[in-house]
Amino acid sequence: MTQSDNPLQTLRRRLLLVSSVTAALVGLITWYTESERIDEKVLAMVVMAAHRIPPATLEAHAQGKLAAADLEHLVEQIATDHFGIVELYDHNKTRLIEYVPPELKYLEEELKRGGHVELTTQPRYMKHLIQGEFALVVAVPIARPGGAPVGYLEGVYLPDQETMTQIQEDVMRTVAMVVLAIVLTALTVYPVVLALHRELLARSRSILRGNLEMLEVLGSAIAQRDSDTNIHNYRVTLYAVALGEAVGIAASQMRNLIAGAFLHDVGKIGISDNILLKPGRLTPEEFAVMKTHVTLGGDILRQSAWLLQAREVVAYHHEKYDGSGYMEGLAGEAIPLNARIFAVVDVFDALTSRRPYKGPMTPAEATDIMRRDRGTHFDPHLLDRFLPLATRLHETYGQADETRLRAILLLALERYFMKETA
User: Fold this and answer.
1) Which tens digit of pLDDT belongs to each residue from 129-171?
2) Is there a cis peptide before residue 327, judged by omega within 30 degrees of 0?
3) Residue 121 burial class via C-beta count within 10 angstroms: exposed 0-12, middle 13-18, buried 19 and up
4) Fold adopted by 7-167
5) Could you tell me the residue ranges of all domains in the chain?
6) Sheet containing 95-99, strands listed edge to edge, beginning at the edge strand earlier in sequence
7) Contact call for residues 294 and 314 (beta carbons, < 8 A)
8) Which fold is adopted by the domain 227-421?
């Protein structure tokens, strides 16, 4: 989801898409099913026409009690009922009569290529499109109820256009009703889904706000252990956001960067005060203990799935691009991108800030020092993107008080966290 996406608009689009696709698919299935029923309806008409030759008539002909001419006359009458060709068979499947109206002789040649329908105890059919017209080649058994066939009628049934139009209109009417039912159902369900979605969003925002407050409180508690203020956390986080935007990192990565910037020194909770608050230079032994704060920080974050997103910065922000950093001695792009971004802005803020043991440098002085470490301490590409921004960022954030910085940072949190549940 992009930052400009509105979740409610996304929900509407998705519901519309699902409803449209469902209506289209069900409509197509209904159309196909109903189209198949056209054949069944036409076959039913054929069966009714075939029943005009009752079993007794064929039995009488077989017994010599009905003249062949009378049987032919009956077949001709059936042919007038939309039949193009009529063939009559006895119970041995021997053809007795074939009748083809003179004007439909062309059908015989067309149908020879399609073959005959098998004569069985059940009505059978094949569909044909002959010169653009629908035709059904059918074979219907002639039998008494529950008895064996005494004969068979095979023919080519040509329903009239009015009948076919009526049947097709019935099909389209059924399809339209099905599609309309789906649309009405979607419109009915939409307010319910929308209400549930809003409730879910409200709860998600509440949980997220709680997590962000925990992030801020925890970051503040860590910062106040060695600086008596949370202003460093706010400032360095805003610097990190600016550099992250300059290099175009994804919104999800930006959220990880913000969380990491807030909690970059969380491991200092495990460092004793006599080392953490020592006013002078640390001994090698003390510095070795101080370095473990990155490992401690990573261990602390593992206890929370939500806070774990900060781990890249927390665990690796003291690595150096040439591999001389700590704790793992990673080099180049083996160092996570967010950690490389944070390393740049953390040093810049440290150089331009007042500390008990030094005064603040100007942005120009700080960037001159940082240029010397291009490719050793810092990722060259990231440093090159940051240096043109440094003076402006310092003017905006470097002299702002804690209240102002917090207000600006809340806007960044809204942009990258709360927009996801807006």
Assistant:
1) 766 667 788 888 999 888 899 999 988 887 767 766 776 777 7
2) yes
3) exposed
4) Beta-Lactamase (3.30.450)
5) 7-167, 227-421
6) 95-99, 83-90, 149-157, 133-143, 124-130
7) yes
8) Hypothetical protein af1432 (1.10.3210)
